[in-house]
Structures are given as C-alpha cells and as structure tokens.
Amino acid sequence: MKQYICVGTDVHDRWLVSKVALGLNPPERLSFGNTPAGRRLMIEELEKRSRAAGGAEVVVAYEASGQGFGLCDELTAAGIRCHVLAPTRIARSPRHKRDKSDDRDAEQLLALVRAHVLAGNELPAVWVPDPQTRDDRELVRMRLDTAGKLTRIKTQIRCLLKRNQVVRPEGLGEGWTHEYRAWLEALSGGGLAAGPALGPGGREALGSLLRQLESLEGEIARLDGAVAALSRTPRYARAVRELDGLTGVGVLTAMVFLAEMGDLNRFQNRRQVACYLGLVPSKAESGESDDRKGHITRQGSGRVRKVLCQASWARIGHDPHSTACYDRIVRKNPKHKKIAVVALMRRLAIVMWHKAQAARQETRAAPRAPGRRGRSERHGPELCSRR
Predict the structure, then answer these.
(1) Are the C-beta atoms of 17 and 24 separated by less than 8 Å?
(2) pTM for the whole thing?
(3) Which end of the chain is less crowded, N or C, counting CB atoms within 10 A of the terminal residue's CB?
C-alpha cells in the first residue's frame, strides 16, 4: 500500500509552522524560517522523511495569502505535491475563531490533506497560475489600482471645495474639463471663486492634490502603453482582437479579463465561469424551505466584476440587444436595475469566455510558415511571452 506524508503548513512573513504525519500516525510539529534558506531546510527535511518511509509521497497544503505562490513553486520544483487552499472555503467553527493559533491552523490543514489523500475528499484548492500569468496580472492590477487612486484624489478635491463652500462657476462644463482644471489651478494660487475663497491652508492642500492628480495621470498613460504592448504579444493578440470587437469592451477590459481568468480551459461550462466570477445568486435551503435565492456570492476576482460592470453599462447605452434585455428586466420590476446589470455582466462574461477560448485555440493551431522559425523556437520556450 502506498504511503503518504501529509503536511499542513501555516505560512507567515517570518515563519513556516508545519504539522507533519505519516499516514494516520500522530503529527509532529516542525518550524522553519520563511526565507530561502529556511524553505530549503524544509524541503530537505521532507525529502529525508520520505526516504526513511520507503519513498512515501509527500503532500503539502497551505492557505493562499499575500505570500503568493513562491513556496508552492519551490516545493513543486523539488517533486513535492503542493496544494494552495482558499481560506474562504475552509469551514471554521466559532470556537476555532475564538481559539486561533498557528498550531491549530496547521492541524486543520493537515486534516484536510489527510482526508484528501486517504479518503478522496475534495480539497478547497485554488488554481495556481504560471509565472507569466502572475507577471501579467501585476501590470493590469497596477493599472486598475492607479485609476482607483486617481478617483480618490478627485473625490478629495470635491470634498475640499465643499467643506470651504467654494462653488463651481457656471460655464465650466460637466466633469473634469480643461476649463475646470484651469479654474482649480487658479484657485490653488489664490484666484477668485464664486463664494468664499480658500485660505492659505486650503490653497496648499488643493495644490498638493492637483500635483498628485497630474502625477497619477502620467502614470496611467505609461501603464496604458505597457498594457497595450502586452496585448499585442502572441500570448494575447488574437484573443484581444476578438474581445475588442465587442461593444463596451476595450483593450484594458480584455486584458483584465484574460489575465485574471488565466487558463480558460479549466472551465467546463458557462455555469463554472459565472460561479468563478461570483455572478451567481447565493442560496439558503433547509428542510421544507428550498430554492431561496439571495445576493450574488461575489466570489472570485472583484477586478473582473468591476470591468464587466463598466462594460455592461456601456453596452446598455450603445448595444440594442443589451438595452432591450435591460429594459425587459426593469419593466417587470423597476427595483431590479441592479439585477438587470448583473444579468448583463454574466452574459458578457460568458460571451468573452467563448470568444477568448476559441481565439486561443486558433492561436495554438495556427501553422507556421515553412522555413521560418518563431521567436519561441529561436530562443526557447521560456521566452514565449511579452519579454
């Protein structure tokens, strides 16, 4: 009978606390530093225990966190099976939350690994993206985060003016027009405004916010260029062209969708896509009370939901089919405007999944011209990317 060494590891910034057990034997506590040297010691210790147990397979599990997937990469490279678990899908009792410790967390992870390898129970594991997908995500996420910072700065400017009873003059247009920006610049330098003018402190604060605004706009322009360059690489070019043809979907929306979704082939049907994105209703069924639906689960990537929401509103205004679908839902109940938007978000996500999946399959199946070698063939598979 095959032997297994099960390991549950609680990962922290400085320490790795593990509970290790051979089969159903009592667990043993091991602790290592969360450094390159400490992780090497952990791998060497697990390999030594595997040899002592006659070649038992080592299976490790730890929770996904801000630590990323570096530990998983190192364990996998050493030939050790590793699972990264979703914390939100691990059942924890109120008692566990009141009496929480590193050892208890490691024991719970060990119990999940044992149940998986010895009884066949399903693990609440997350999909581990490849290094290139992780690197691409860093870029598109920074683009979205920078836009969020820009929005917060604009909100701070509006609130500063409101606190000081400074009224926007008429004739400056709606939104952040050039005239409005010029008025703000003059106001920060002591110019006149409709109503009370800003004091010295308010002018300095407004000037600081305007400088931050200009800096963030420059960063967004640079990031937009980097995202556009990434979208033209062979990894994304065909899929982005397909998605960019959809009403309301631009290059940034397409890149956020592709980078966050990762391997599209891991989804078997549209229900899995909607469930992964948290666009399915929650449910509460018990006893005779069945089919009780609630709000959407909001699981998965909130970034994808954000761009899908923006794209759906654009489609409501410019795509006749989406407009008709939205109006049909709202006519039944005027309070269901959000439900109508979520329905369009789900529909758009499924359409984008189908188109992107087909485009990537065509990219892989496209034959190369005879006598020519692509970049990846010249330089090796590690360069099949934007770099």
Answers:
(1) no
(2) 0.87
(3) N
CB-based burial label for 275 (10 Å; 0-12, 13-18, 19+): middle
Q: What distance in Å separates the CA atoms of residue 271 and residue 342, rounded to the nearest whole number? A: 14
| Residue 255, helix vs strand vs coil | helix
* pLDDT tens figures, 36-47: 999 999 999 999
Residue 156 burial (CB count, 10 A) = 16
Would you call 222 exposed, middle or buried from its count of C-beta atoms within 10 A (0-12, 13-18, 19+)? exposed
Amino acid at 213: L
For residue 299, give both structure tokens. 């699981």
Token pair in block for residue 156: 């701070």
Contacting residues for 104 by C-beta, under 8 A, at least 6 apart: 96
* Residue whose entry in the numeric block shows the structure tokens 């009978």: 1
Rounded to 5°, angle at Cα 130 from 112 and 221: 125
Name which of 342, 276, 287 is nearest 89 in CA terms: 276
Q: Cα separation of 153 and 2, whole Å?
A: 60
Q: What is the pLDDT of residues 270-307, one digit of tens each?
A: 999 999 999 998 887 766 666 667 888 898 899 999 99
Dihedral angle sign, alpha carbons of residues 119, 120, 125, 127: positive
Beta bridge partners of 81: 59
Closest CA to 309 of 329, 287, 339: 339
Residue 181 · residue 188 · CB < 8 Å:
no
Which DSSP state fits 192?
-
d(CA 351, CA 199): 54
Partners of residue 8 on adjacent β-strands: 19, 61
Helix, coil or strand: residue 294:
strand
Contacts for 285 with CB less than 8 Å, ≥ 6 apart: 291, 292
Q: Are strands 81-85 and 57-63 parallel, antiparallel or unpaired?
A: parallel
Give the Cα separation of 214 and 233 in Å (integer): 30
Give CA angle at 300 (228, 106), nearest 5°.
120
Taking the mean position of all CA atoms in its chain, how far away is CA 135?
12
